[in-house]
Amino acid sequence: MSDTSSSPVNALGLVLDTNSFVPYYQQIVDHVRSLVEKKVLREGDDFFSEGDIANFLGISKMPVRQAFQKLRAEGLLIIAKGKRPAIGSGRVPWNFQQLRGFSEEMRRRGLVPSARVLSMDTVEPSLEVAQALKLAVGEKVYALRRLRYVNGEPVALVTSHLPVRIFTGIEKQDLEKQSLYLIFEQTYKRKLRWAEETIGSAIAAENDARILDTSAGSPVLTIRETTYDVQNIAIEYSVSLLRGDRYTASVISVRKN
Predict the structure, then answer these.
(1) Structural domain of residue 59, as residue ranges?
(2) Residue 73: pLDDT over 80
């Protein structure tokens, strides 16, 4: 290994424990997260490239790349094309001006989304669901509950309510690997047009906190969303719980003359 004592990276105090069972990438993540929490690194500060870190530590870029991916997923690192990495706020802003599914939004950010189906049932809708979807008396809905991940980290618990009359047989689709919006548009020919969202906050209940791998009583961002097709028919009503330490709402308002 070359002498790195004069490297700017040295200021981070980053040292790998080669005897630890903790992977190198996780050691890097933990160290950077600690520096952000201690205000040694602050939002907007320039950071180092993957190559800078790898050269300083004398390791390959692979574990550094994994660390950067995880730091991006946590909102601690912002990487824009053609620019140096920068320290983030620790929260990922979600732009509600664009109608994108979870998978589309995460891939747009260069992150890796995935999902796990927790339950899929045919149920009588609650009054809230029936009103949102404008259901006739006696209509049933599918209640699809999924845990959404970013780079392997649980970040959102989403319950989607879908009218059975519109999406008959949807339980046969691969709801873990396929985008729900893609299924709407390609399998059921329901072209999406717009969505109405209500954004709020809540405290994570014990069971929800366990699933999201966070502490009971910690803040969660709540999103109630009704999605409409091009015929202005409400086809999905979803309730999402997003970890408050990972996400913030981002809305652009334009003043009209």
Answers:
(1) 8-87
(2) no
Contact, 189 vs 172, CB < 8 A?
no
Number of structural domains (the chain) is: 2
Stretch (H or E) spanning 141: strand 141-150
H-helix or E-strand spanning residue 243: strand 234-243
How far is the C-alpha of 165 from the C-alpha of 157, rounded, in Å?
Answer: 25
Query: In the structure, what pLDDT confidence band is assigned to residue 84 with cuts at 50, 70 and 90?
Result: confident
Question: For position 110, what pLDDT does the model report?
Answer: 65
Consecutive H or E run containing 241: strand 234-243
Q: Are residues 102 and 130 in the same domain?
A: yes
Q: DSSP character for 8?
A: G
Centre a 10 Å sphere on the Cβ of residue 53 and count the other Cβ atoms it contains.
24
- Give the span between the Cα atoms of 66 and 26, in whole angstroms: 8
DSSP 142-194: EEEEEEEEETTEEEEEEEEEEETTTSTTGGGS-TTTS-HHHIIIIIS---EEE
| CA distance readout (Å), 166 to 79, 162, 188, 189 | 41, 8, 8, 10
Q: What angle do CA 236, 209, 214 make, to 5 degrees?
A: 120
